Amino acid sequence: MKSSTNIKGKIVSAAWKLFYEQGYEHTTIEEILWESGTSRGSFYHYFSGKDALLGSMAYLFDEKYEALSRELDPEQNAMDTLLFLTHELFLMIEQQVDFSLFARLYATQLTQNGEKQFLDKNRVYYKLLRSIIERGQSRGEITKENSVRELVRIYALCERGILYDWCLSGGEYSLAETGSSTMAILMRGLIPQQPEA
User: Fold this and answer.
1) In the predicted model, is pLDDT for residue 185 greater than 60?
2) What is the reported pTM?
3) Please, which of 51, 99, 117, 126 could form a disulfide with 58 given CB 3.0 to 4.6 Å?
4) d(C-alpha 112, C-alpha 2), whole Å
5) What's the half-sphere exposure (Cβ side, CA atoms, 13 Å) at 41?
6) Where are the alpha helices (DSSP H) in the chain?
7) Residues 32, 14: contact at Cβ < 8 Å?
8) What values do phi and psi take at 172, rounded to 5?
9) The CATH number of 1-50 is which of 3.40.50.280, 1.20.120.420, 1.10.3720.10, 1.10.10.60?
């Protein structure tokens, strides 16, 4: 018997494959059902329609974070770890996600009522940020002037801001390069200040 998570995952994977290959507008729900090998009832159990699938991109990003988390060196400085994750996700978006589709995702997150997947604190993304920042604070690599919760919020807010600007700019610059260098500048403010001698 298939688990409900597996069925939902099949629908999401099939949809994003088709969106990338033939565009959002040219993909029908029937094609998604055929590609995923699932039923119409299953589709509407999880999604109210095609637009609702756009928000599921956040969970595709979480799959990338899960894969990257297995590559992390626990001895690496927390700041370097955060920058690595940012760079790799931005590179994935730049290379593997259709720009117009990503821009549409942002638009639906702003206009659609209901769940905002990018803000779901139970996502792998937020759990990973929390664990890295906690470790960084415990090792004196990240300031303790702010709580872990507040630093996670600030970090995620800055990443979303960069992604939004990239969309507004029509993807005219390298998301991976500009995003990473911008986050590095912002993160300098998280390094604990050394007392002057």
Assistant:
1) yes
2) 0.77
3) 117
4) 30
5) 1
6) 4-22, 29-36, 40-46, 50-54, 57-69, 78-96, 99-111, 124-138, 148-168, 175-187
7) yes
8) -75, -10
9) 1.10.10.60
